[in-house]
Amino acid sequence: MATDSGLFDPAEMNWQGITLTDAAAQQIVHLVEVTPGLQGVRLGIKVSGCAGFAYVLSGVTEPPPDCLLCEHGQARLWVELAALPVIDGTHVDYVREGLNQVFKFHNPKAQHECGCGESFGVEAE
Question: Which of 24, 41, 46, 124 sits at a 20 to 30 Å CA gap from 58?
Answer without folding.
Answer: 124
